Amino acid sequence: MTVHPRLVRSVPFWTLVVLSVAAIGAGAYVLVDKLGTMEATILDGTATGVEVYVGQVWGVFGAVLVGAGVVGLALALAVAAARALVPAAPRNAETAAEVAPVVETAPATAASPVFADEPAASRDLSDARDAAASEVRTGDETVATEIDTATADAAHRDAPQR
Fold this sequence. Notes:
This protein is mainly alpha-helical and 162 residues long.
């Protein structure tokens, strides 16, 4: 998972885009409606001071809404362009090493020392565990693997007791 979510899934980005388009739409509606009403009443000769002077203020308010929407869309475009310039998180061995670090083991010795009072089954168990540590090459990474201890313990239990 990347640290920064993709821009397509960003709720603030889409909120900015939707509100900008809504501001443009609302501003255009107010601007066209009030200027249309003002023009029709002036041409008819029935215009009052309220329609002319208040209509101008509503027209300016509509123009401000359109301008704010355009600025919001420009800001959304700038954010999208800036996000495109930010490099994506690498998805290679470095990232995999951070998720699952490679465990290095010491090389196995040739043989474990044998003591006279140590039972044979115990020697077999320690030899099996020493022999079980092996390195497996996968791609360019070395992964240390070990035998399942349950299998080795089962072999120890099955050995004859003295």
